[in-house]
From TrEMBL:
The lineage of its organism: Bacteria, Bacillati, Bacillota, Bacilli, Lactobacillales. This is Esterase. It comes from Streptococcus pneumoniae. It comes from the Bacteria.
Length: 72
C-alpha cells in the first residue's frame, strides 16, 4: 500500500493536477524534491548535494542506509 502521493516523487517535471488540484501549483512548487520536480536552481541543487557530501545533512552511516535500494 503506497502513500497516495508517492507518485509525486517519481514524476520529474510533472505537476500532478489530479493529486494536488489544478489550482494548487504553488503548493507543488513549495514541495522540495531536489532534482525531481524541476523547481530548483543549479546552485540550489549543488548546495544540497555538497551538504550531503560533506556529511552536514546526513552522517556517513545514514548515507549508507539510504543509498541501498529498499525495493528488493
Amino acid at each position: 500500500n503506497e502513500h497516495p502521493k508517492a507518485a509525486l516523487s517519481v514524476s520529474p517535471g510533472f505537476a500532478p493536477d489530479d493529486e494536488l488540484g489544478s489550482n494548487d501549483l504553488q503548493l507543488w512548487r513549495q514541495i522540495e524534491f531536489p532534482g525531481t520536480n524541476g523547481q530548483v536552481s543549479a546552485l540550489g541543487l549543488a548546495t544540497f548535494y555538497n551538504g550531503l557530501a560533506q556529511e552536514k545533512l546526513l552522517s556517513r552511516e545514514h548515507m549508507e542506509l539510504v543509498r541501498v535500494s529498499q525495493g528488493g
